[in-house]
Amino acid sequence: MRALVKRNLLLFFRDRAAVFFSLLAVFVIIGLYLLFLGDVMKNDFRKLGNAGPLVDNWIMAGIIAVTPITTVMGALGNMIDDLRFKINKDFLSSPIKRSTLAGGYIVSSFIIGVVITSVTIVLAEVYIAVNGGDLLTTAALGKVVAVVILNCLSATFMLFFIVSLFKSANAYSTASTLIGTLIGFLTGIYIPIGALPEPIQMIIKLFPPSHAAMLIRRIMMEPAEAAIFAGAPVSEIMRYRLTLGVAFDWGGRIITPWESVLYLVVVGAVFFLLSVWKISRKQV
Of 144-158, 159-173, 176-190, 240-254, where does the model show the most confidence? Predict the structure, then answer.
């Protein structure tokens, strides 16, 4: 498997176009934020004081949460290319097990997701610091990295199963475009979750990466939140958290961070089992 993982990593990172397009949704979000989303958000919270660091951390946390989705989806393009050029038949005619072949795609995609998201964290922290915000403490950074790893793992199993259903490059390309288009809405980046209709909010709360976004926001926004809402009523703080997706409620009850972690674990486990079932049916 190690040789397969190395081969997939080299194929991905040598293809600059693949790297760029896997990050296209992230570039779009950053562009929209710099052009007008940032100013709109900061104006909405101007009455609270200096909302710049709060909003910067909010958007950067969202970007960190969506990066694993777009990069893992891009990395799994190797599997589609192998199918398109019949390379998978060469692998399957050799002594390599199907589970080993699938494991090579999964592990390499997970590594790509973690590496590129780690770079995104560094760039996000640089942006926040340049704009007058505070860098994450070592403890907070460790928590963010832990959530990123969990998010990458969950996303890898989920997307591997989805991509394994595709039989053509066109289907894969369409799915990638659709995910890249919707990811900003499904994680509450383009429009704060609290400003959306209740049915849409329910869909967002069922989308696993939105839980990762919520967890990362809680960690990254905590210092700015404490400074801006010092002495504010608990009800006001909770209203703001629910609006920006820093907290989720389900049936009138606030979801705890550990419940969101458990949800990501369960989703990853379910899609892992589905992937194992798919492999056992010899359709990968």
Answer: 144-158
Torsion of CA 232, 238, 241, 245, to 10 degrees: -170
Selected residue with higher pLDDT from 143 and 244: 143
249 pairs with which residues across the strands? 254
Q: Cα 282 vs. chain centroid, distance in angstroms?
A: 29
pLDDT tops 50 at residue 284: no
CA separation for the pair 53, 2 (Å, rounded)? 43
Long-range contacts of 264-269 (CB under 8 A, 24+ apart): 264/150, 264/151, 264/154, 264/208, 264/211, 264/212, 265/150, 265/154, 267/154, 267/158, 267/208, 268/150, 268/153, 268/154, 268/157, 268/158, 269/157
Contact 60, 182 (CB under 8 A): no
Residue numbers of the domain that contains 83: 2-280
Helix-helix angle 138-164:52-75, to 10 degrees = 40
Locate tokens 């194992």: which residue?
276
pLDDT above 60: residue 195: yes
Domain count, the chain: 1
Token pair 């995609």 in the structure block, residue: 109
What pLDDT is attached to residue 191?
Answer: 84
